[in-house]
Write the structure tokens for this entry.
Amino acid sequence: MKVLLIEDDRGIALALSQALALTHVVVIASEGLEGIRLARREQFDVIILDLNLPDMNGLEVCEEMRALGVNTPILILSGESQILSKIRLLDAGANDYLTKPFSLGELKARLRVLDRQKHHAQAHSTQLRVADLTIDTKRHIVTRAGEPIKLRRKEFLLLECLMRQAGTVVGRKVLAEYAWPDTDSPWANTIDVHIKYLRDKIDRPFPRQLIHTVHGMGYKIEAAGGQPDEKR
């Protein structure tokens, strides 16, 4: 699980990062604006957000992320336990609230629940998003950075399959079954050719690459990185 931790207390941030290191990849932001920038640029499974930040408070960060279209689950960390504070944060778009002090076991359990909820929502959603790329599966509309992108049917299905499993490797067999459900076995290079077509439309006109080759395994779509593949 990839986690964005927005926490200005370096000691707390490092302690949490080390405690989660065996099961999570933790990216730390020490300010609200930095956290918002990272949340828009990269794909995270969960965001852990502290309320007391030097440049803006956690409520403002939460509201800004939701206004900008960031739909990653947000877990708030706070020393406040007042019900009204929790209600305001939940209304602002937070998904869960954990009061300090807390146990590491409870934190991990909350993160697992949020991750499951996110994947369940993705599996049934008609609107998917990775970084600045969005897809409306009901209306068959694709945009990147606000620009409409025209895709053929098979290209659209491959992109939908990748985006429903964003951040994870999707094998060629799974992609083939999703895009060619009535075909026993498409030509061996069919997937690779269509992925190339997708990249020509989704990645090449833009500064950041989203579709990545995982050699010997398949493909994945995520906002991390940004450097070209060896075979692009």
Notes: The chain has two domains: 2-124, 127-221.
